[in-house]
Structures are given as structure tokens and as C-alpha cells.
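Page 37, continued from 36.
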């Protein structure tokens, strides 16, 4: 079975390093925290009803967006860890290890400690 070529995005190979950073996610969390605090306070301070309702809608939308971003980031971390894991019972290098060597990284031919045991999926 041959592997397909690199994934194309807008006519160029997709590079994971070119994606958005954590700054946008952190900004989402800061705005969400402020909105969560302000929403009940807006009711206690008797702000206009439309403004309290708007804050509530903003909280709900930010929860949705921040939750989806969290899931996306967790999938990226899991995919990276999966690509760097050494196959059980194999002496060959993984794709991630070969890429690291080609990029001039350190020698990754180190065996894992014996107490780790097999990895379950």
C-alpha cells in the first residue's frame, strides 16, 4: 500500500507549524472569563436587560468556540505523540524519528525504559 502525497491546502502542502498559535486560544479564554464574571454582575447591577442577554449569548458562543478549539488542540497533541511512538516489537524507526533525523535532530535510537509496558489504544 502506498501512502498518499502531502495534504494539499490552497494549492500548497499543509504544514502544521503554519497553523494558528495558542495566542488566539488564550485570548478566547480571557474574554470568556471576563464575560462569565460580568454576566451575573450585570443582572445584580441592574444593567439593561438587552445587555445582560447579550453577555449571556456571548458566554454561550465563547464556550462553544473555546470547547471546539480545545478538542482541536488535544487532537493535534495526540497525533504528534502517536507519530513519535515506537511500534511494539519493532526495531525500525517511526516516521517522526526519520523526519527528526532528516531535520538534523538528535539520535532517537534510544529504547524506552522497561517499566513502561505496552501502549494500549
Amino acid at each position: 500500500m502506498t501512502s498518499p502525497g502531502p495534504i494539499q491546502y490552497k494549492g500548497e502542502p499543509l504544514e502544521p507549524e503554519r497553523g494558528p498559535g495558542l495566542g488566539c486560544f488564550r485570548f478566547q479564554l480571557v474574554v470568556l472569563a471576563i464575560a462569565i464574571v460580568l454576566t451575573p454582575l450585570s443582572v445584580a447591577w441592574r444593567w439593561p436587560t438587552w445587555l445582560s442577554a447579550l453577555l449571556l449569548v456571548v458566554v454561550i458562543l465563547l464556550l462553544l468556540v473555546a470547547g471546539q478549539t480545545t478538542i482541536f488542540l488535544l487532537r493535534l497533541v495526540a497525533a504528534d505523540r502517536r507519530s513519535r511512538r515506537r511500534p511494539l516489537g519493532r526495531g525500525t524507526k517511526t516516521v517522526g524519528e526519520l523526519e527528526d533525523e532528516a531535520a538534523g535532530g538528535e539520535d532517537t535510537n534510544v529504547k524506552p525504559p522497561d517499566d513502561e509496558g505496552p501502549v494500549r489504544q
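The mean pLDDT is 76. Flag for discussion at group meeting. The first helix runs from residue 22 to 44.
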